């Protein structure tokens, strides 16, 4: 459920920013959904190969920044694959990557999975123990 929510939200963010940014062109929402799926797959299969050396260089202090930059690079890579999606320049891809990261964080905070609550990543009102 959370995966579907992330994909739909990422597609909505990409499609919405394409409407407001003249450097980004997405033909329709179906293309934005395909971009979100490809971005998720590339982040899963290739993103860690790019992120790991960069995190070693920064001593894992800039993990969030590295993740955003790698997402922007992957968006430019998807741009080269798809004819119905274009990004002119790196800065618009970086803006989309930041917006996708912020939207994903908001979704994770508002609809956490059970694993996130059990690991202590997020605290819900129902999981808090009373103080005695």
Automatic annotation (TrEMBL):
Keywords: Membrane, Transmembrane, Transmembrane helix
Transmembrane segments: 30-50, 57-78, 84-107
Pfam family, one: Phage_holin_4_2
Transmembrane recorded as keyword: yes
Signal peptide as annotated in the record: none
Native species: Spirosoma validum
Protein name: Phage holin family protein
Source species taxonomy: Bacteria, Pseudomonadati, Bacteroidota, Cytophagia, Cytophagales
Stored PANTHER family: SLR0284 PROTEIN (PTHR37309:SF1)
């Amino acid at each position: 459920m959370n995966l579907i929510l992330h994909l739909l939200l990422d597609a909505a963010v990409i499609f919405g920013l394409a409407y407001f940014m003249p450097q980004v062109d997405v033909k329709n929402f179906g293309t934005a959904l395909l971009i979100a799926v490809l971005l998720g797959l590339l982040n899963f299969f290739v993103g860690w190969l790019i992120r790991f050396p960069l995190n070693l260089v920064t001593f894992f202090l800039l993990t969030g920044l590295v993740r955003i930059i790698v997402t922007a690079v992957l968006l430019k890579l998807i741009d080269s694959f798809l004819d119905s999606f274009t990004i002119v320049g790196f800065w618009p891809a970086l803006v989309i990557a930041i917006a996708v990261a912020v939207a994903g964080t908001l979704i994770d905070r508002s609809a956490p999975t059970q694993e996130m609550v059990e690991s202590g990543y997020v605290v819900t009102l129902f999981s808090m123990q009373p103080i005695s």
